[in-house]
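Workshop exercise sheet. Pairs work together: one partner reads the sequence aloud, the other fills in the structure field after running the prediction. Swap roles for the next sheet.
Pair: D.N. / O.F.
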Amino acid sequence: MARGKRGLLAAAVTVVCAVTVLAVPGTAFASVPAGPAGPSPAPSATATATPMPAPVPDAELEKVRARLDGLYHDAAVATDAYNAAEEKTRKQSAQLAGLEKRTDAAREKLAELKDQAGAAARAQYRDSGMPPMARFLLSDNPERFADGAGTLLNGARATKKLIAETDRVERELKRDTDDAAARWKKLERDRKDKAAAQKTIQARIKDAEKLESQLEKKEKERLAELERQAARKAQTAWLDTGVLKKKADTASTTATSAGAEAVAFATAQLGKPYVWGAEGPESFDCSGLTSQAWADAGTPIPRTSQEQWKHLRHVDVTEMRPGDLVIYFADATHVGMYVGDGKIIHAPRPGRTVTVAGAGTMPILGVVRPDA
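Structure field:
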């Protein structure tokens, strides 16, 4: 029976959807026909008792832990993609709103210019339809000739300006209209990217929850302890490198006023749940927490951990100070805020809450400074 249970758990590690309930079925007995001496005696209580399942070895729980880490990492990758698409959607929507105002203003201006051109044409018609140049040349009065010359010159300049202004407005209107059409297409692509990322997030979280649901209560407790042991081991190994002792310049490790405000904001969020795509105030994902903390400190930073890694100033890990952001994993898909003493505050993953953790409990990609 124990071997059957371990086999099921091992299968769960490989194919989540194939996992079945990790309970050992009771022993069944077929009916025994009556013999010449009467019916056979009923099986003893000892024979029918279901043996207690053997505990799942830690090695198999480690495989489950690794599989869960992989699923939640995939969800984190998709969450960053979702957040990036969400940010692009916001920007595109704002830019489209600006373009719409500009095109409306251009249409009104174009209508005004056409009205002016129409008024000029009607004035010419009222003057018997004779072009200004003809009336100017036929004048035999020297004074009127001189006045006509000035009027003709001014009229020509006004007409030229009217035509040039009309052409300019028409070009701007066409440019903005074409730009708006292109942005609408991009907005639609961003929305599709966002929807695809959302599906991936939900699928990975569902797989992880299904895998965890197959574990019995004691196994979940042991799994949690294995996670804590792995975190302590990683943190100890990181500290053993002497990274904290290498900070010779103590002034560089002191938080700025903005950094202290960001840390205070992050600290106030302890215990709030992780929710992918959330930026507060009731829940956060990892980069939602860090971006909102620095926004609260008066320093807006990129929304996603990947953009934070890409655009913020990099500093050596030995120089990090409270408020700096520690970026994790080779693809920069997780971020926490350094708070001093080798610790970070971060929003770990679905099912967890904003918490304090060792800065070295995950593979560090690097450190960035928002208020460089």
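Discussion prompt: The longest helix spans residues 142-213. What would you look at next?
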